[in-house]
Amino acid sequence: MTDKKKEQGGNGALALAASLGLTVLSSLSAAEAQLAATPGSIRPFRANIAQAKLDDMRRRIAATQWPEKETVADATQGVQLAKMQKLAAYWATDYDWRKLEARLNGYPQFVTEIDGVDIHFIHVRSSHENALPLIVTHGWPGSVVEQLEIIEPLTDPTAHGGTAADAFDVVIPSIPGYDFSGKPAVTGWDPPRVARAWTVLMKRLGYQRFVAQGGDWGSLITDQMGVQAPPELLAIHTNLPSAVPAEIAQALPTHLPPPGLPAEEKRAFEQLDAFLSNGLAYALEMAQRPQTVSYGLTDSPAGLLGWMYEKFNEWSDSGGDAGTVLTPDQMLDDVSLYWLTETAASSSRLYWENKLPFFAPTGVRIPVGVSVFPAELYRCPRSWAARAYPHLIHFNDKLENGGHFAAWEQPGLLTSEIRATFRTLR
Asked: Which of 142, 195, 322, 411 has a CB 3.0–4.6 Å from the CB of 312, allowing a cystine?
């Protein structure tokens, strides 16, 4: 490996740590430190953001130059000024990042180099024997923060309404360019490549059989794991299925559903039409010009908050007010993680890298479970799921609550769905 590649790859997290005030290696002997520097090694990680960076974040929030109030009485022009100012005021004065930092550091966290990029991940082993290894992938504007609520129910089921037979070993990685993972310095980190890296990660952890779950980007990455179908991967679960039939995709630009659609398929068509017509602009901008959009998101915490807060409001099961299902701290934990790790640009590039169509079937042939939360971007009909995933082992569209951020909004329901999907594979 050349010195340049080492700098961009295996030492990427160390360089990031130095700039952000993070601790990647702690209390290691010289021999242990040498071992930790070996490619393919797994190194302990702790988050410890420098206080100066937190002070600067608060200063920037307080100095925000706000726009004038919107000229409508609803959110059709975007996040309303009063809501933004209220949440930003709390962020600048009362929000405590250290609480999230302590919570993250309460879990075993690690970094390992895969394909030239350092991958950060949480890894919690169950105390129950024969726990099933599970890798869970987040999306945008989410992060590993989303999945914190499901760690204990999955790893310690007997304390959360389950049995020992429901136990999982849980691995929650940060997508390259997100959270505490390294930022790719070269192109090519698209969902299929991330999927391949996840298989490497699970095998590196010693797992010879495992399952995978994801939402948002995590769904597409998990689908790609299913397409690649490594022999160790038993099955996958998704809460945002790639299942829109070709004839539906072809009709969407016309805004006219094909004649004779059953009621649930027509409803799904209308939801997709609304999203693609009115809710996709953010993705188009990030996909076409991620560098341009990131200048404002990297320089202004309020700009980053508005960009992400809009999606919390629109995509959660909240009727447009995410504060009814997520606390201010939950939302600010996520936004602060993006801000403090300076990942607005690197996370946006996943949209630029991706060449797969959103929602289209990808060709998964291994066993699949699908959970349809009522306020998801579209409510996938069983007929579509069965066509997209010929080995459908679980399907549930009767969930009463929950939206796009299932692990955040309804961790109990998502836990139950994960258990149900994989129960027969143990």
From this structure: 322
